[in-house]
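S., here's the first fold you wanted:
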Amino acid sequence: MGRMRIVTVTLAWLLIVAAQEARAQSDQTIYADALGAGWQDWSWCARDFNSTDFIHNGTKSAKVTYTGAWQGFYLRHASQDSSGYSDLVFWIHGGATSGRNITVAAQLNDVAQAGVGLNQFILGGSVAAGTWRKVTIPLSALHAANNPNFNGSGSRTQAAALKRLSTLTISR
């Protein structure tokens, strides 16, 4: 009887660990050296998905250049259920300039949701010159959590800016 309990507890523990590992492995890649499966570039700004100017990990980064006001970087996917995902996560590099003011928004059924200022979600508080900083934006802040019609995310700025992005994912 005691052995049966040990086996049952051990099996339950292994299932919990396996479920956590499976969950951790199921983040969806939006960009990592190339656009992830099903993701398309619908941007209206200058961009280079093969930039080697600044590399965080891998061999490339996405270089996004806003050359004027009201330009946007937008990556789109066919509608998908965002349930089970919690955050939009990526790394950002400011190039030679710090303090960029960038707004990020999600799309539901190709309709932009209310945007949020990027700086509040950057580890370190803002885009910084010469360094990579991690960004974690809860999907709830983008009004896209637990929605069956999530199909994109993008950023826009009201002034000229340059940024580099690396390893863009939707995490669980």
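And the second, which I think is the more interesting of the pair:
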Amino acid sequence: MEPWSRENRERIFDRTEAIPSRSNFAVSETGRARAMNFFDELKRRNVYKVAIAYAVVGWLLIQIATQVFPFFEIPNWGVRLMVLIIALGFPIALLLAWAFELTPEGIKRAETADERPTKRVGGRIF
């Protein structure tokens, strides 16, 4: 039999085990959907905004510390300590952003903030 004969091509390309089954494909789609739901939830809870704001403010504080601390003769370990505190606070800020939400009524847990009733004041919904 020739390697590229019609019978050999059909035998090679008609193998059903080489084609992923529909159920395996559905599992990967479900995993992808879960990942998208997770990132949508991060966006809904404003975790991205908190991460960006924390990074910008942290960077600004570090820049100020590296410029001002030597002027006041604060030792170098003070700058290192400040960088360490800012770095350790980052995951804590993300966890707090995930768990709590800032509403017009104040800081609420994310679950209760979603379920809060809307107030009507003067025909407007707040």
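Why I say that: Residues 1-44 form one domain. The CA atoms of residues 35 and 118 lie 31 Å apart.

Talk tomorrow,
H.
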